[in-house]
Give the backbone structure.
Amino acid sequence: MIKIHNLHKKFNPGTVNEVYALQGVDLDVRDGDFVTIIGTNGSGKSTLLNAVAGAFLPDEGSIVIDNREVTRKPDYARAARIARVFQNPFAGTAPAMSVAENLHIASLRGCKSYPKKGLNATRMQFYREKVAVLEMQLEDRLGDTIGTLSGGQRQALSLLMAVINPPKVLLLDEHTAALDPKSAAQVIKLTKMFIEQGKLTTLMVTHSMQQALELGNRTIMMNKGQIIDDISLTEKKQLTVDELLNKFMQIRKQEQLTPELLAELKQMYA
Amino acid sequence: MELWIGALNLGFLYALMAMGIYITFRIHDFADITVDGSFTSGAAVAAVIIIAGGNPLIALLGAFGVGLLAGATTALIHTKLNINSLLAGILVMTGLYSVNLHIMGRSNIPLLSEVTVFTQIAKFNPGLPQEIWYTIVLTGFIVIGWWLVSLFFKTDLGIAMRVTGNNPMMAGAVGRNVKMLTLLGVALANGLVALSGGLVAQYQGFADIGMGIGTVVIGLASVIIGESIIKSRSVYLRFLSVIIGSVVFRFMIAFALYIGMNPIDLKLLTAIFVLLTLIISKAVAKRPAKRESPRKILNSLRKAIFNRWSAAVVFILILILGGFLLFKSGGSHQKIKIGLVQFTDNGLLDVTRDSFLEEMHRIGYINDKNCRIYVENAHGEIPVLNTIIDKFIRDDVGLILTISTSATQAAINKVKDRPIVFATVANPFIVGAGESDSVHLANVTGVYGGVPMDRTLAIVNRFFPDRLRIGCLWDPSQANVVFNVDNLRQELRNYPQYHFEGAHASNSAEVYQAALSLVNKNIGAFVLPPDNIIYSAFDAIVKAADNRNIPIFISDVERLKDGALLALGYDYTSSGIQAAQMVARILKGTNPAQIPFEKYTKLTIGVNLNVARKIGIEVPQAVLEQATLVIDEKPVTRGEPKRLALFQFSDHSMMEECAKGVLDELKTSGVLEKYNITIERKNAQNEFTLGQSIAQDIVRRKYDFIISLSTPALQIMAQANKKIPHVFGAVTDPYRMGVADSPEKHLPQLTGVATFQPVEEGFKVMREILPRAKRVGMVWNPSEACSEACTIIAREAARKYGFELVEATVTGTSEVMDALNSVLDRGVDIFLTSGDNTVLIAIESVGEVLKKRKIPYFGNTPSDIYRGGLIAVGADYYDVGREVARVMQKVIAGADPKNIPIQDCVPIQIGVNLALAEEIGLELPESFLKRVARVRR
Ligand SMILES: Nc1ncnc2c1ncn2[C@@H]1O[C@H](COP(=O)(O)OP(=O)(O)OP(=O)(O)O)[C@@H](O)[C@H]1O
Ligand SMILES: [Mg+2]
């Protein structure tokens, strides 16, 4: 479903702020895979997701989604297949507009927006049923603006918006990181449900080892703009959180090592 | 009633524009100021289509289209070229000015006798008063517009556009092409603005190049006022609030006029009002937001009323209404009422107004006694002009007097049912007031006249009967001005020996450049038809003409004293007087249709003989005889007070002495009393920038004589002054300063006294006292011209007297001690400082070091011995000063500095610090001591 080959991205090249965020990422995600992504801060996880979504164009390499070459396509042109939820609850919704309007524009993902009145009574009824699934007491608040919702409500809504018009690929970037534990649990529950129902190919960045192990059938670990570990479902089942954490610490130490040794270690893991 | 109805109508018309502003600024978060240009574009396109005979509705469509284009251009510049939205707007707005001029082909298109949407609407009038009928139709129109626009923003596309403005990142993520939608939004917004422009042009009866100025501000004010009245998240209510904001804004202006407030304060009032609204609505916004849905429109309207601020606005509106009713019931006296409106604060218009009022008074119409004259001024704003006229109608004036073309144009378009008399209009026919003096609109008559270019040229011809290049400057965007210039060209056909050179300036900052370009084309005279822009920068023209003594012919007598040679124009008091007489005839019952237009009867001709003398032109006797005004200030006679500037660069002791010499000599010679001269001392405090300012000030304030002391003072003064007689002194070598090549060949305005430092004399003394000394050390700053001159002489003299010169250079005082040490390390028997100011500043420290090392310190300023020097062989600057004063006396007596050669004056003076000599163990021969003039013991 997603084929990434030798992806490179430098931000602000040639300046003092130059960041080499992706340094040759190769990744092959099969249809229906649910991949969790872990890695240290600044390792390039979000950058990878952004690259897939088309928020910027890569310097080098290729991205193929659903057998379509999309490397040089802008975000809106890829949106028919890709939906995403951002880490920041404020980023994924239009705060000055109503819940219904947000849902409506999200359900138009991949379609043209014509000057016709699409938000009619039947659609409203449809959205009301949909938000009921979230169990966030949003059923009677379709007319309210997003700005009046709590972070948890927004993030649940963002998730609903991402799947309301089922995408091929779902990108989740630490979408529970800013939530309180209760809301986070609810959002994770919904995430699982939506992914199972829609059989969505998913990339999910998380900082919770627990989530990384429990969710999905595959976990990849990123460091310094590269994928340095790829843990399969069988492997995951044996791994405990502590072991995974150890692995993580190891990488931390590895950062002191030379690139050659790093490559060796990588082979070892592979 | 008309005042408020008119304000309501204008509010509706401008509401479309405000809705456009709302779309860019609020929905798209795009600070777009293209609208200042696109508003005019809409008016321009609509007007052009209408005068070409097009359907007025097509004209509106065209206006909408040109707005779309303008907006799309801005958005493309922003999205494609990644240029800041504000900048993109400024660029397009600026460019549109030219485009609009091209579309219109002139700066003003009257639509008076054309078929407009309003004449069409008027046809269906069931018999209501015109403005009220308009209100009814406009209400319907604006409701439809409101509904359409709101509906649009509820469609899928509209929602997508709103999302784009609200959260572009999310919009991209859900598949919206952000750039495309931004383009659409900005284009649509400008389309609405231009549509509004097209409507306003048809309503007021003309399109004008300046119509759009301030559109952004008016639009934003409307948006903000609206938002403060209705706070809602509903799209419908938000656009409604914008419409209400636009109407309230117009009501504010009407109210200000109603209570007699000077419209000049209106802008300040608007600014304060908007600021207050912003502050208060910010405070209100902090409260938690209320729930709202489109179905609860009525509900939220009710809530909105309870909002404190909106309550205040409603209260004001009620007050206005109440006041109006009160006034209406109480104000129905049977007096004659006249409304007088002038367009701007312009000298001619003011003269017309005042002479009108005076003449009215003289012939028996006394304000507030047997008549009431409402005097209003639109301060250059066309919408205000309309509101003033509405106010006149509301006040039920019996007659309207319009001063200026714009005021006349606005009035004759609006008012058909009562007489209008115009005054100070260059050409009433181009605005559609009539076809000829006797065939004209039935309710309109007045006084007019272009500038009599034929008579101006006849006078120019008296001065220059032969070939002449005539330079003319004008602002092409003013219809009147273009008319006058065309007129001038027309008349020039009668003078084949004259050649016309033209230049444009569209604002006063461009005038100087344009005038210079004409001067460089070798014009022989400026002939300037009246033009506010050009005349406002008249000084710049005088300046440009000054270099080549080019005479200036103008049409405004007021400007004569500012440097024009001749002014020929109508006496605008006659415009007011003739208008008053017309008004009197109408008030006595004559039908204005029966009163032909009149041209001004009185002409004024002014001559400035001072200018004539200055540029060396003889004024023909015939011109003098015609002149109604002659400016002639005879050149100042001997007895009149004169001022002499004594400019010294610093209060260095040498200069103080020199100045003292100058003052003593001038005082004792009696020249000051004889010629009634006062001396003012100026001191640059050793600062070049200060020196330059002082010099410029001396020139600007036209001192009669200048004395400069020291080299920098000479340099600065020679740079700044080319005219005032200038005598310099305390200068070592004027021939290296660029002011003179030889004593006879020097700048014409200056002469003076050169005092070469007696450097050689110094070396002679060194040899005399220290027969065995070999090496002379010296520190100097090569950037000091005077010091360099001395060093060159010193090298020569050192060789002559058998010394070796050990030099070190510095660039500033801070380096002096290091340089001194380096010189001392190389081993010297004597140290010399020859007038180097950098070293002189540190002379005490230098003296201290040399004293410790027991090295004799030679200087060349006698006063050096008081500050650390041992022996000084120099010029006596007191004597130099007296010599300078003697040269000045010749100049005061009338000699031209040009003819006075520069003289050398080096009165040698030797000073010795005996105490120091003793301390370092130096014995001085008696023969030498006898020659010493100054001794420090
Ligand atoms: N738009 C950008 N411009 C410049 N630098 C960027 C940009 N986006 C990311 N970076 C840089 O690229 C590197 C990788 O960032 P990224 O956000 O992908 O890390 P991450 O793995 O998601 O980290 P975190 O766990 O903290 O979210 C960081 O150094 C970051 O500063
Ligand atoms: Mg991240």
Chain A has one domain: 2-94+151-268. Residues 2-94+151-268 of chain A form a domain with the Rossmann fold fold (CATH 3.40.50.300).
